[in-house]
Amino acid sequence: MSYAIMSYAVRMESLEKVVGSGEERLFTTLVSRAEDELARLDEMMGDTLSARDALRHMIMGEEYDKEAGAVYGYCLKLLCEFLNDSTWLPNDYWSGMRFGWFDVVHGELKRAGVHFDPTDLIYGPIPFGLPSPDDFPNIGHTTLAEIPPLLEKFDAMDPEAVTDPDARGAIEQIHDWLRTCDEMKRDLICFYH
Questions:
Q1: Long-range contacts: 48-54, Cβ < 8 Å, 24+?
Q2: 90-113, pLDDT tens digit by residue?
């Protein structure tokens, strides 16, 4: 089985207006727009909290079910997909992969003089105090304030030191994600599943 990182440049202020807003009309609109996706999540998750209920908890500011972290994680991804102030970022080099790909890219980053572990993209703090998933999706959140120092590391990289062409593409893609977020003044939220 292969996996992927789905990355989004997100204006956190807009997401913060949704999560915990208590706006019933917003909740109803999102459920209507995402009906098929919510049904797919329910089918995938089985006998746990429904995706609709998890989304309701998130928007209405209700207490989270600590045992249902995965459902909340997928609902956060759903919000990133449906939010106007969120942009999906290309992931060609980060899809159809196994977890070992992180080690390959990490090794190439070290060789190029960049001290950054790409797993930090998917094992970061989870926004809004959402419970951690027991399994998938892995979630990482890189704040806008954290992006400029990371960009400096990537900008100083020696690209000729990267010997694996696919790893070079993966590194360039991370660099592009960071640049895009910096230019758009947005946070980076990544999901791995």
A1: 51/75, 51/78
A2: 999 999 999 999 999 999 999 999
* Total domain count, the chain: 1
Per 3-state DSSP, the chain is made up of helix, strand and coil in percentages (nearest 5) of: 55, 15, 30
Residues 47-87 have pLDDT tens digits of: 789 999 999 999 999 999 999 999 999 999 999 999 888 99
Q: Which helix (H) or strand (E) holds 190?
A: strand 187-192
Q: Where in the sequence is the domain holding 179, given as residue range(s)?
A: 3-192
Instruction: Find out whether 147 and 190 touch, Cβ atoms under 8 Å.
Output: no
Beta carbons of 122 and 138 less than 8 angstroms apart: yes
CATH classification of the domain holding 188? 3.40.1760
Residue 5 CB partners (closer than 8 Å, separation 6+): 91, 94, 95, 121, 122, 190, 191, 192
Phi, psi of 157 (to 5 degrees): -65, 150
